[in-house]
Amino acid sequence: MKILAIESSCDETAAAVVEDGRKVLSSVIATQVAEHRKYGGVVPEIASRRHAENIVPVVKQALIDADITLEQADAIAVTHAPGLIGALLVGVNFAKGLSLATGKPLIPTHHLRSHIASNYISNKELKPPFLCLVVSGGHSHIVMVEDYTKMRIIGKTRDDAAGEAFDKAARTMGMPYPGGIELDKIAEEGDPNAFKLPHPVVNGSPYDFSFSGLKTAVINLIHNASQKGETLPVADLSASFRKAVVDCLTDNFLKAAKDFNAKTLVIAGGVSANSLLRKNLEMLCKQSNLQLFMPDKSLCGDNAAMVGSQGYYEFLSGNIAKADLNAVATLPIDYR
Ligand code: KG4
Ligand code: ZN
Questions:
Q1: 208 CB under 6 A from ligand 1?
Q2: What is d(CA 148, CA 294) in angstroms, rounded to the nearest whole number?
Q3: What is the pLDDT along the chain (336 residues), one digit of tens a residue?
Q4: How far is CA 54 from CA 27, 28, 111, in A?
Q5: Ligand 1 pocket test target in 10, 110, 136 with most atoms within 8 Å of CB
Q6: Which of 119, 200, 246, 323 has the fewest CB atoms below 10 angstroms from its CB?
Q7: Is 299 in the pocket of ligand 1 (CB under 6 A)?
Q8: Is 211 helix (H, G, I), strand (E, B) or coil?
Q9: What atom of ligand 1 comes closest to residue 273's alpha carbon?
Q10: Cα first-last separation, the chain
Q11: Is beta strand 23-31 parallel, antiparallel or unpaired with respect to 12-19?
């Protein structure tokens, strides 16, 4: 089954053709990062306009690259939630139009479930059940993936998402948006023990995260230093911050694995590209005899191939939308 998939939840307009959930026939991404960089973050109105401009050429290119016509696609999958509402609406309305015009089934796909599905593309042998750490710009979850479309939230962030914390700390250090990627690179040159930063825990909820205190600690260090006319060593501060965030993520994730007796661990989302997170988890899982799966770095960020993968499993589970499908800004991963 060939699925034409569309993604427009944030600042990438993407389309892909994916066969039987695992084989990517094409994947096209038009990123708007350079334009939003001027403002230090995503400007929702600009994102919506660019999606509207890019969606036709991006979808056309995905069909050309896959060497199929629209008629040869068996279904259309689209990210309908969660994300920026104006951005999501562009993809949802376009997909609805294609579905109405061709009579092909329309598959609503949850963005975070799609991030998890990026692993089905990179790791052909991976099948649920597994425990997944989903860390993106907007969300940080520990999820028990009981089946392809059956999820149970074990823990989540109480405030900032991991990616958001990375981006805000990086911006205060003067790095361009999205700073998480830059901070990860600069941290490679620094000493992770140079600064003592807090290791926030959520009392009574051992699997939940809290990153806002950690982010504020870094911002305060920088502001206090600048008031004294001093500058802090950015590489050391980046390395210390990265280690603090990664320690919080890995501690809770491995505790959940132990308590829920999960033997297969998976990571997903933009932050799963983080070099220290990948390195430390590889080491810790090896020590504890746990199997670890990660998406290729090229599939960690937003793309439509992952939507085509998850869309396939949503289709198999009977999740087909009608013409009244709407975009939804906030929707829990275990919504159905
Ligand atoms: O999943 P994603 O592409 O978009 C959302 O669904 O939010 O995640 C984007 C987030 C951004 O905050 C970005 O800074 C972060 O992922 N990110 C990273 C790295 N690469 C991307 N954070 C830390 N280290 C990285 N290497
Ligand atoms: Zn995403």
A1: no
A2: 16
A3: 999 999 999 999 999 999 999 999 999 999 999 999 999 999 999 999 999 999 999 999 999 999 999 999 999 999 999 999 999 999 999 999 999 999 999 999 999 999 999 999 999 999 999 999 999 999 999 999 999 999 999 999 999 999 999 999 999 999 999 999 999 999 999 999 999 999 999 999 999 999 999 999 999 999 999 999 999 999 999 999 999 999 999 999 999 999 999 999 999 999 999 999 999 999 999 999 999 999 999 999 999 999 999 999 999 999 999 999 999 999 999 999
A4: 14, 11, 19
A5: 136
A6: 323
A7: no
A8: coil
A9: 26
A10: 23
A11: antiparallel
Q: Which two tokens stand for residue 60?
A: 């056309």
Q: Which residue do the tokens 């090896």 mark? A: 286
- Tokens 């396939």 belong to residue: 312
Q: Is 83 in the pocket of ligand 1 (CB under 6 A)?
A: no
Q: Report residue 49 as tokens.
A: 């306009």
Q: What is the DSSP letter of 209?
A: B
